[in-house]
Amino acid sequence: MRMDGNTIFITGGSEGIGRGMAEAFHQLGNQVLIAGRREAALKAVCEANPGMRYYVLDVADPMQIVAVAKKAIADFPKLNCVIANAGVQRLYSFAGEQAPDDFLIAEEININLTGLIRTTTAFLPHLRTQERATVVHLSSGLAFVPLAACAVYCATKAAIHSFTLSLRHQYRNTSVKFVELIPPRVDTTLGGGSGNSPFSMTVPDFGAAAMNGFAGGADEVPVGHAKNLFAAGAGESAKPAFAGMNPA
Ligand SMILES: NC(=O)c1ccc[n+]([C@@H]2O[C@H](COP(=O)([O-])OP(=O)(O)OC[C@H]3O[C@@H](n4cnc5c(N)ncnc54)[C@H](OP(=O)(O)O)[C@@H]3O)[C@@H](O)[C@H]2O)c1
């Protein structure tokens, strides 16, 4: 992907990985638009990065996605890149006396998977009109080898991998490129984490590796330990089977 001169819309740009990528792209001379639920957090990121713009958006709400996509495209007709990054991670036991909360499960799927699909769908008609466009989907190393404690999260990430493969194939003869960014454990507050685990990659280190991956033009960008999980769970071995089922 070209690394400058883009107009990039990033969901979940107010903190963590999304903020890291927003700031890295901003510094490279891209027009960056960030979105999320908490206006104060979005505003603080924009104040720290003059020129960045924000949109308040809950990706669990389909009407908001359509309205915000329309507004962002009207405000920035050159918008040519969408990074669907917003996500949550919850821990549940399905083996305990009490069943996990159905509302929380549905909400997690709605944010991580349905929200990503709807965000992509809302921007695609516009992206198709651009000379060069990129859609980045955030999955996880846990898409390929699940961590049982966060079973629903891992299932949403496996589904994002599958969805991205299919859209890349459907768009193979167009100007729209689909990239799957596959993080390892990164020091953020995802899932109520402390943000400073000794086993995690830091946000700046992750951001630098992700930017290298984008610049290199790969369709799939596994980072750090996620490379091992990607190779173990799918990786290259799945490609001949996919090509066999989906002729060019
Ligand atoms: N950190 C890791 O170890 C790791 C590993 C693999 C994959 N990932 C993936 O990377 C992505 C970013 O994770 P992170 O670690 O940076 O998490 P984070 O620090 O918790 O940040 C999550 C971001 O998503 C936004 N968000 C959450 N729910 C939203 C909603 N309903 N609508 C709009 N925005 C929403 C949050 O903003 P608001 O709360 O203001 O809405 C926040 O900006 C996620 O997709 C995650 O699954 C993370």
Describe this entry's structure for a reader.
The protein is built from eight helices and seven strands, in the order βαβαβαβαβαβαβαα. It is an alpha/beta fold and about 250 residues long. It has one domain: Rossmann fold (3-Layer(aba) Sandwich). The chain has a seven-stranded parallel beta sheet with strand order 3-2-1-4-5-6-7, sandwiched between helices. Helix 5 links the parallel strand 5 (about 135-140) and strand 6. The radius of gyration is 17 Å and the shape is globular. The site of NADP nicotinamide-adenine-dinucleotide phosphate has 29 residues, from helix 1.
Q: Which characteristics define this entry?
A:
single chain; alpha/beta; seven-stranded parallel sheet; 7 strands; 45% helix; binds NADP nicotinamide-adenine-dinucleotide phosphate
Strand percentage: 5-15%
Q: Helicity, in percent?
A: 40-55%
Can you identify the CATH class?
Alpha Beta
User: What is the CATH superfamily?
Assistant: NAD(P)-binding Rossmann-like Domain
Class per helix and strand makeup: alpha/beta
The CATH architecture name reads 3-Layer(aba) Sandwich
Task: Write down the overall geometry.
Answer: globular
CATH topology: Rossmann fold
Number of helices: 8
User: How many domain regions?
Assistant: 1
How far do the termini sit from each other? Answer: 22 Å
Low-confidence stretches: none
Largest sheet: 7 strands, parallel
Following the backbone from N to C, one meets helices and strands in this order, namely: EHEHEHEHEHEHEHH
Averaged pLDDT: 94
Bound molecules: NADP nicotinamide-adenine-dinucleotide phosphate
How many β-strand runs? 7
How large is the radius of gyration?
17 Å
